[in-house]
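Request from the bench team (R.T.):
"We need a structural guess for the complex before ordering more adenosine-5'-diphosphate. Sequence and SMILES attached. Just send the tokens back."

Command: build protein-adenosine-5'-diphosphate structure.
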Amino acid sequence: MNTRQKIGQSKRWVIKIGSALLTNDGRGLDKTAIKQWVAQMITLHQRGVEIILVSSGAVAEGMTRLKWTQRPTALYKLQAAAAVGQMGMVQTYESFFQHYAMHTAQILLTHDDLANRQRYLNARSTLRTLISLDVIPVINENDTVTTEEIRLGDNDTLAGLVANLIEAELLVILTDQQGLYERDPRLDPTAPLVKEGYAGDPQLEAMASGTGGKLGRGGMLTKLKAASRAARSGTTTWIASGRIPEVLLKIADGEEIGTVLLPVQAPLVARKRWLASHLKMRGHLYLDEGAVKVLRHSGKSLLAIGVTRAEGQFSRGDMVVCLSPTGEEIARGLINYNTEETHKILGRPSEKIEEILGYVDEPELIHRDNLILV
Ligand SMILES: Nc1ncnc2c1ncn2[C@@H]1O[C@H](COP(=O)(O)OP(=O)(O)O)[C@@H](O)[C@H]1O
Ligand SMILES: N[C@@H](CCC(=O)OP(=O)(O)O)C(=O)O
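Reply to R.T.: structure attached below.
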């Protein structure tokens, strides 16, 4: 059995379907195609595969329903379109799955739901429960309530994080191209297809352009970044064209289609994976050489004494980036003190915190359990 065939036998899949594909390039929901993907998912489910769907298309379908020809730039219009289009999308999935007596469940997530530990754990247990009930979760970003500040931005990222959340074995990204090409095929139609690579390989990321089509937001770069995120839970990513007949079954059979991106590092433990899923950084801490060494080699907490400078506006519990004296990123972590407090205690020993602030929240600036090395 070759690598692809082994991957095809994965038992927990996250399947992400992009806007361009789902709405047939903006001509409204492509119900014929959706019907076929649903039929394939049913076959996979009957073979014992657990499926979580991440579906884009709310904004694109909303635009069609509202008869808008141009994707609006104003957030409030995008949110209105998403609210209208999400209805059509979930109705379509539910009715096709109902045909096979299966239920779907709508899950709308925001960045905050994944950044807050309690909500992250709630989302995970809901998804696990739905899977155990043989229900197909249909996930999208909760576009109607997200602001520029807190949005994930594209569903490739969301799919990568969902793969981490439920420890999927395989993330399938269906799009309007055959996979990753060595150059953007819109610019160079002769570019060769990359068949296999490693998630997080910077050489592959250099091949992908960051702009999506007129409907999607991601482009190929976010798909590669999603593969890199997914790899943190040991998940393999398979990017393929959703227009290939029986595409999902071909993947399950390990056929030579699309681009396969293999995880290289050992999977991170659950809490570290959650930490790594934070996308919004609120500040930067510059460490001295001693602190860099301790973080890298001793797995210890970060103390205020090892920090020379702090930038940004953050509150207790926010994610900040730790940099070496030359500005190289070393780690990220949840800080125990806000900006003003940090400015007062940096460079000082932990036993002085009480004297300086009048209280001590924690002796560490960032506890090692809340720290992830980069
Ligand atoms: N190296 C590349 N290989 C393949 N596609 C690329 C590459 N660079 C950029 N792209 C573009 O990414 C697009 C897919 O992204 P996007 O429009 O966001 O799709 P989706 O809606 O499926 O997320 C393709 O149509 C393609 O033009
Ligand atoms: N949440 C948005 C997703 C937009 C988006 O990222 O689309 P895509 O790049 O096609 O995955 C929607 O449903 O329209």
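Two things stood out. The two ends are 35 Å apart (CA to CA). The chain has 15 helices and 13 strands.
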